[in-house]
UniProtKB/TrEMBL annotation:
Gene name of this polypeptide: ociB
A GO MF label: phosphopantetheine binding
Lineage of producing organism: Bacteria, Bacillati, Cyanobacteriota, Cyanophyceae, Oscillatoriophycideae
The protein, known as: Cyanopeptolin synthetase
Organism: Planktothrix agardhii NIVA-CYA 86
Cellular compartments per GO CC: cytosol
InterPro entries: CAT-like_dom_sf, Condensation_dom
Gene Ontology terms describing biological process: amino acid activation for nonribosomal peptide biosynthetic process; lipid biosynthetic process; secondary metabolite biosynthetic process
Organism domain of life: Bacteria
One Pfam entry name: Condensation
Domain Condensation: 2-291
Length: 292
C-alpha cells in the first residue's frame, strides 16, 4: 500500500489537442505492452504475474477552465501530488493511471503514473516516444508506425528465470561473494542527527544542477582520460565520501539499465538493477589513478 515505488510523469501540452486521439494513443501503448496489463498475486506465497487481455483503466478528464490561472496552478499541483502518492493495489488495479487536466482549449497537462514493478526510467522514455509517434500518426488518420514488439516482458522474465539457476547462478554468487568479501557494513557519515537503530526509510532527495563552466571542465577531463562521464562523476563522489568519512573502502549502489539485448530496448517493464561498485582508496592514490 506504499507509494514509494510510484513513477509519476507530468507533461505540459501546449496547442490544440485532440483528446480522443490522445486516449487512443494511450490505449494502444497498453495494448502493445503486456507489462502495463499485468497484475501480481500471491500463489502459495510466491508472487505470480497475471497478464490481463484487457485492462479496465480509463483516462480521467479534469476540466479546470472555470478557475482563474492562480487557482488552476494550485489545483494542478494538488492533482499532481495526489496522483503521485496514491498507492496501487498490485493484485487488482491497472498499474498505470492517467489524468488529463484541461486548462484551456490550447493548454493541457497529462499526468501519468506507473508502478515501478512494471516500469523504470528507460521505460518512461519508451512511453514518451511511442505516445508521440502514435499521436502524430493517428491525428493524420494514419496507422501506427510502430513495429510489432519481438518479445514481451513475460518472455524476458521466463528467460531470466531459466538462465539464472544451476552452475550459472552459483558462478554469479561466487563472484559477488568474492567482490564483497569483508566489505564494511555501513558508511560512517558525519550526519547532523544520530543514525536510528532501526532503518526508517524516511528520506528525501535534493536535486541540483552543475554550472556550464563546471560541466565543460568535467567533459574535458573525461575526454583527456579516455573514460566516460559516469566514471569521472563516480570517482569524484568516491573522493568526496572518503573526505567526509576517512574510510578507504567505499561501496556505492548505482542503477544500471540491464537491457543487454536489442529485443529489450523497446519494451516497457522493470529491467533496472542496482550494481554495487567498490572502490579501494588505500595508499593515497591520485584522482587520475582512481579514475582509470
Amino acid at each position: 500500500d506504499s507509494s514509494f515505488y510510484n513513477i509519476p510523469l507530468a507533461l505540459h501540452l501546449e496547442g490544440n489537442l485532440n483528446q480522443d486521439v490522445l486516449i487512443q494513443s494511450l490505449e494502444e501503448i497498453c495494448d502493445r505492452h503486456e507489462a502495463l496489463r499485468t497484475n501480481f498475486i500471491s500463489v502459495d506465497g510466491v508472487a505470480t504475474q497475471v497478464i490481463q487481455t484487457q485492462t479496465p483503466w480509463t483516462v480521467n478528464i479534469v476540466d479546470l477552465q472555470h478557475l482563474s490561472s492562480s487557482e488552476q496552478e494550485i489545483a494542478s499541483q494538488e492533482l499532481t501530488q495526489n496522483q503521485a502518492i496514491q498507492p496501487f493495489d498490485l493484485a487488482r488495479d491497472p498499474l498505470i493511471r492517467a489524468n488529463l487536466v484541461i486548462l484551456s482549449e490550447t493548454e493541457h497537462i497529462l499526468l501519468v503514473c506507473m508502478h515501478h514493478i512494471v516500469s523504470d526510467g528507460w521505460s518512461m522514455g519508451v512511453f514518451l516516444q511511442e505516445l508521440t509517434d502514435l499521436y502524430n500518426a493517428y491525428i493524420q488518420n494514419q496507422p501506427s508506425s510502430l513495429k510489432p514488439l519481438p518479445i514481451q516482458y513475460g518472455d524476458y522474465t521466463l528467460w531470466q528465470k531459466q538462465w539464472l539457476q544451476g552452475d550459472i547462478l552459483q558462478r554469479q554468487l561466487d563472484y559477488w561473494q568474492k567482490q564483497l568479501a569483508d566489505a564494511p557494513a555501513l558508511l560512517s557519515l558525519p550526519t547532523d542527527r544520530p543514525r536510528p537503530a532501526v532503518q526508517s526509510f524516511a528520506g528525501a532527495h535534493l536535486p541540483f544542477t552543475l554550472s556550464w563552466e563546471l560541466s565543460q571542465k568535467l567533459t574535458q577531463l573525461t575526454q583527456e582520460q579516455g573514460v566516460t562521464l559516469f566514471m569521472t562523476l563516480l570517482t569524484a563522489f568516491d573522493v568526496l565520501l572518503y573526505r567526509y568519512t576517512e574510510q578507504e573502502d567505499i561501496l556505492i549502489g548505482t542503477p544500471i539499465a540491464n537491457r543487454n539485448r536489442s529485443e529489450l530496448e523497446g519494451l516497457i517493464g522493470f529491467f533496472v538493477n542496482t550494481l554495487v561498485l567498490r572502490t579501494d582508496l588505500s595508499g593515497d592514490p591520485s584522482f587520475n589513478e582512481l579514475l582509470i
